[in-house]
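Example S7 (structure tokens).
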């Protein structure tokens, strides 16, 4: 998100996959064994589902509950530094190393010219406007009975395209539409890919030092500096947005406190300005207890009230009953893990490319005082980078 590092991967030297949603422990054991035997700065890249499988929606099955790869080839470009190409090899214990096969690389650097994106033939929202309003009403009724204090309802926009979309061209366009975000793209088979530009860090760990953040409370960006300042002031002054943000911040601090020696936060939320929206953001820093593994951190921090609600268990049950589609990897952790470091973003502002269809996902936090139409407009603002890129009004 800060522009310090870009990574491109191709091929698979090793892969870790699983279909069980409660897969953090099994994933961690297998990954820790591999990393303990690794030589050099080895990183596995991948992600996890948001939550339980949907009983009828099969669209995310090819991705599994989690999938992490050690790439065969890895290109890393650091800001202000040279670009590095690495090749990863895996061997059985005691066996000789395989002969390295280095690809023929072009000399010089030609600019990337993305292919034209297809046109949009139609757009359908799930749930539709009527069912969305019903879902918001049910969420507010649950809050009245004290079962929930917040729930994050999502919508899925199904875009029918005139031809299959090139996922790298989508990523290339989205990075210019969204600005300061964690951009990601992972392909899985011909014509299937997951691509997005998330504003939200789940956690970044270096040894025992951890950075996280509370990101909740949203307004669109203005079309002029005056309008942008007005919307920022409206965001800062909204009691509803402040309460939504407080719920997220307090929950993350409480969960981190159980696994940390110390936890610190900014005195108050700042404004994170993106290409089309702006958010309330509070930075959170922690000194972890020794011996903590990344699987325990994931179980501790995911999902946050910013993507599920509060309390989390009750919110997840509400979403399972209410949302008519499978979130899949939307709002799940995506990132990388190394021997003594890891970084995960929350997979927001994202889409699933399935040949000539593009499924877009976005959500809005429902708290007392929420209005169904206003929350639908917030979701539309979050989808705007994709919609503008595809020339959808």
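Recovered sequence:
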């Amino acid at each position: 998100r800060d522009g310090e590092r870009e990574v491109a991967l191709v091929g698979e030297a090793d892969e870790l996959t699983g279909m069980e949603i409660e897969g953090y422990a099994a994933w961690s054991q297998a990954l820790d064994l591999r990393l303990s035997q690794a030589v050099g700065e080895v990183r596995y890249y991948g992600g996890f589902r948001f939550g339980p499988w949907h009983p009828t929606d099969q669209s995310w099955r090819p991705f599994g509950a989690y999938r992490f790869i050690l790439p065969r080839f890895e290109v890393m470009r650091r800001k202000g530094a040279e670009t590095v190409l690495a090749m990863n090899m895996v061997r059985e214990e005691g066996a000789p190393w395989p002969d390295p096969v280095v690809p023929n690389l072009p000399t010089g650097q030609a600019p990337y010219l993305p292919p034209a994106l297809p046109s949009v033939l139609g757009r359908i929202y799930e749930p539709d406007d009527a069912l969305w309003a019903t879902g918001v009403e049910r969420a507010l009724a649950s809050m009245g009975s004290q079962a929930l204090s917040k729930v994050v309802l999502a919508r899925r926009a199904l875009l029918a395209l005139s031809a299959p979309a090139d996922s790298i061209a989508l990523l290339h366009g989205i990075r210019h539409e969204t600005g300061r975000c964690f951009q990601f793209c992972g392909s899985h088979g011909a014509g299937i890919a997951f691509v997005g530009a998330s504003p939200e860090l789940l956690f970044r760990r270096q040894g025992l030092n951890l950075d996280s953040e509370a990101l909740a409370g949203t307004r669109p960006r203005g079309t002029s500096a005056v309008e942008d300042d007005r919307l920022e002031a409206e965001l800062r002054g909204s009691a509803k947005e402040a309460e939504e943000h407080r719920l997220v911040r307090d929950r993350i601090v409480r969960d981190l406190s159980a696994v940390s020696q110390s936890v610190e936060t900014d005195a108050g939320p700042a404004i994170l300005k993106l290409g089309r929206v702006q958010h309330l953001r509070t930075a959170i820093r922690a000194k972890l207890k020794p011996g903590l593994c990344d699987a325990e951190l994931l179980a501790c921090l995911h999902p946050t009230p910013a993507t599920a609600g509060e309390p989390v268990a009750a919110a997840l049950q509400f979403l399972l009953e209410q949302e008519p589609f499978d979130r899949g990897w939307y709002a799940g952790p995506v990132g990388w893990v190394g021997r003594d470091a890891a970084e995960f973003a929350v997979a927001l502002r994202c889409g699933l490319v399935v040949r000539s269809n593009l499924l877009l996902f976005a959500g809005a936090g429902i708290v007392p005082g929420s209005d169904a139409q206003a929350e639908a407009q917030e979701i539309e603002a979050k989808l705007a980078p994709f919609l503008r890129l595809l020339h959808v009004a």
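Notes on this example. The mean pLDDT is 90.
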